[in-house]
TrEMBL record:
One of its GO terms (cellular component) is ciliary basal body. It comes from Dryoscopus gambensis. The keyword Magnesium does not apply. PROSITE patterns: TTL (PS51221). This is TTL11 polyglutamylase. One of its GO terms (molecular function) is tubulin-glutamic acid ligase activity. Pfam families: TTL (PF03133). The keyword Transmembrane does not apply. Keywords: ATP-binding, Ligase, Nucleotide-binding. PANTHER family: TUBULIN POLYGLUTAMYLASE, TUBULIN POLYGLUTAMYLASE TTLL11.
Amino acid sequence: QFPLGRRLPCDIYWHGVSFHDNNIFSGQVNKFPGMMETVRKITLSRAMRTMQDLFPLEYNFYPRSWILPEELSLFVDEFRTMKDSNPSWKPTFIVKPDGGCQGDGIYLIKDPGDIRLTGSIQSRPAVVQEYICKPLLMDKLKFDIRLYVLLKSLEPLEIYIAKDGLSRFCTEPYQEPSLKNLHQVFMHLTNYSLNIHSGNFIHSDSVNTGSKRTFSSILCRLSSRGVDVKKLWSDIISLVIKTIIALTPELKVYYQSDIPAGKPGPTCFQILGFDILLMKSLKPMLLEVNANPSMRIEHEQELSPGVFENVPSPVDEEVKVAVIRDTLRLVDPQKKKRKDTHLSFHTYLLIFPTQLQSLHAGVAGMKDKQHKHHSLKLSLKLKFYLKLGSCQSLKQVPEASEELPDAAKSLEAALPSLCLKQVFPKYSKQFGHLRLVDRVAALFIRFLGVKGTTKLGPTGFRTFIRNCKLSNSNFSMAAVDILYIDITRRWNSMGIDKESGMCLQAFVEAFFCLARKKYKLLPLHEQVSSLVELCENRLAALHGKRLAWGCG
Ligand code: ADP
């Protein structure tokens, strides 16, 4: 912590809430600019809708959602149409305030007329979503899964998933929603922060019982019931990769605005919390993505009225310590420099003082004489460094640095294997075709012009149309301006953002509109990919020409 400000640049910056410090010019920051905004309920629902429009079958893991208040009439119309075509359809919906967390302000409804419009909906926008009525139950209770995902890099895209997560249980036996039980939060909402207040909440010392358990303990139970857990994991991995692919276009716009290309700046990584619900059919459904998942490894216990004590929580500790430890192992800057697999000694000293001590203790028990001799020497040195107690003093011991690779090697061996599993680029072949909006975003960013902005002005939009040669006798530049004004005005009237101009989602809408116009008969994703390709080719040709003129 630097309560009085920093003097020296750091390798890793660990921010509590968001990327907010524009005075960082190197190193790695544990937050991406704009992540909090990108995963808010409304923005996430919009991004998922775009992907559902393009790839409906691939993105059927996110419940159908409508944004309130702007899509209230659309929601009502779609509800009526569905009801008319199937009168026995008795759905339930869940209303969730945008930017809310911990179940705050959430309620269930059976009919669009039950949405509480009393003034607040205008000031507090929300998402209304199809409620998953048949979740998988365990011990008759509904539960959800919190999985930790490391977005290690945006460009190139690198995603890791933690092999274990948390399962959070409701505290009242589940019943399918009916008018009688709609308001029973302990039955329908799995939030820890709510259920902890139920008299039935069980804090457990073990990782496979109680109201919060490890996900691996659930998998064990499912496996013993004959469930194909490998297939379940592969479905979860696919859900995570697809969700991140839906988020990257927006993230890239924020990134270039805060850390413009060509300027010195840090790189970013971020631990995300994915909330997933398993349906009775075992299909995983995405509920939401948290930019700041709680990393607490203890909980509060009320000893006597008003007197609280922090008590360790073995389940949280088991899962979360490994996630943070391995995130640091993966982003370790010394490791990058040496291009080998060992964690830098400095990083060890920072995060694993206890491991160092136990390594020292373990050396005495070694059988191989030569190894023991070397390790003993090393371990004595480690003890000495530990006494020094800080990286600053370590740097002042010149001979220490020569021993670092060896020290790191032995320490790496003393650590458990990585709990974070790389899934992207590992599975990039399977999912690469879904990165279409990323390419649309690349076009958008190219024409943004002024650095530091996230919105495209009318001139930028015109230049895009002109350089990609998209206007013709059927689509005049006047029509281009009208398209820009129409779409931009609508998006700006919905947003809270005061910056004027065309945001990425508005550009995507305009782009889809142009694609539909140009390639009438194709399915939407083919229309869009054809137009993207055309634009990329025309821009490449233009660039080639400009280079040739420059040389000439
Ligand atoms: P919050 O950020 O306030 O926790 P969530 O979207 O995570 O909001 O929803 C809170 C809880 O409500 C979830 O943990 C889950 O138990 C339940 N829930 C949310 N959406 C659905 C849904 N579509 N179907 C069934 N249950 C849901």
